[in-house]
Amino acid sequence: MDRRQFSALLLASGLARESAAAAPWRLATGYRAESFHTVNLLAMARDVAGSTQGELRIEVHPNNTLVKLKDMRAAVEAGTVEAGETIMSGLVGEMP
Questions:
Q1: What angle do helix axes 36-51 and 3-12 make, rounded to 10 degrees?
Q2: What is the rounded CA–CA span in Å between residue 72 and residue 50?
Q3: In what order do the strands lie in the sheet with 25-29?
Q4: Considering only CA atoms, which of 2, 72, 1 is closest in space to residue 31?
Q5: Which of 8, 50, 64, 94 sits in a 20 to 30 Å window from 42, CA-based?
Q6: With the C-alpha atoms ordered 68, 27, 89, 75, is the resulting torsion angle positive or negative?
């Protein structure tokens, strides 16, 4: 799946909300800003903004600055952040 397909899937999944234009989504990641993971997330954020004509904006927060990697799932579930990216092997204890 390429970035544009993923962006379309994100929107088609009903993740866009009415207040999206008012406040950007905060996407937390534990990876450093220079890593390819974060570079890809930034590209996805640009694609989403373009695909929605700015209706949905995503701010990427790298380096564990917003949420620590180990706390990512809980933070998203609690609504502390709108989105988070984590390594699946870190969730084995919660989702075997």
A1: 60
A2: 26
A3: 58-61, 25-29, 83-85
A4: 72
A5: 94
A6: positive
Query: How far apart (Å, rounded) are the C-alpha atoms in residues 80 and 95?
Result: 20
Shortest CA distance to 45 belongs to which of 36, 56, 58?
Answer: 58
Beta bridge partners of 61: 28
Task: Classify 60 as helix, strand or coil.
Answer: strand
Four-point Cα dihedral 42, 36, 61, 50, nearest 10: 10
Long-range contacts of residues 87-94, Cβ cutoff 8 Å, at least 24 apart: 87/30
The pLDDT tens digits for 13-47 are 445 444 445 689 999 999 999 999 999 999 999 99
CA 44/CA 42 separation, integer angstroms: 5
**pLDDT number for residue 88:** 77
Q: Quick: pLDDT tens for 58-72.
A: 999 999 999 998 888
Amino acid at 67: V
